[in-house]
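Predict the 3D structure for this chain.
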Amino acid sequence: MKRLILSVVCCLLSVVLTAQGLSEQKMIQTMTSAAEQIKTIRCNFTQTKYMKMLSKEQVSQGKMFCQQPDKLRWEYTSPKASALILDGTSARLDRGKEQGTGSKKFVGEMARMIMNSVAGKCLTDSKAFQVSAKEMPTEYVATLLPLKKEMKRLYAKLVLHFDIRQSTVTEVELHEKNGDRTVIELHDIQIN
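Done. Predicted structure below.
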């Protein structure tokens, strides 16, 4: 759950689109600039996991809230309730299990990625991702190829979909190395 949340939050919080018809580099700069204006994000989500080993997908629903610079609540409401809560340097997983971000490298990395994402640094972090972007008829699509070994070991790529009219991320695809895929659709998005 931690690695999924790390990836999703990095993607979700890192960008908001505000311009159309831009070159790839200009599009990335615009997304980063818009993300720097974000103080809070609140939304509902539907997460669908497609696994090669199972014929039926797994569907979860939940809520996400993030506040600059270091607060996050990623909460699953169905089929089973659980949550990840980050508050400064501490993280709680599920039923209140407390651990400091410095005690586990992965949790510390998660906190760092989330903070960089909210600040709009994820798309311009050339040490973490190789980023490309393209314009489609109704959306912008950004593809992030992981460069850090922890993320590279898990994911082949992350794909972000931005609705041109809403100027926000509306869908995130996480393509795992093993061929499995997770799609997170965001709805009822409220910014600031």
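Confidence is low (pLDDT under 50) at residues 12-21, 98-104.
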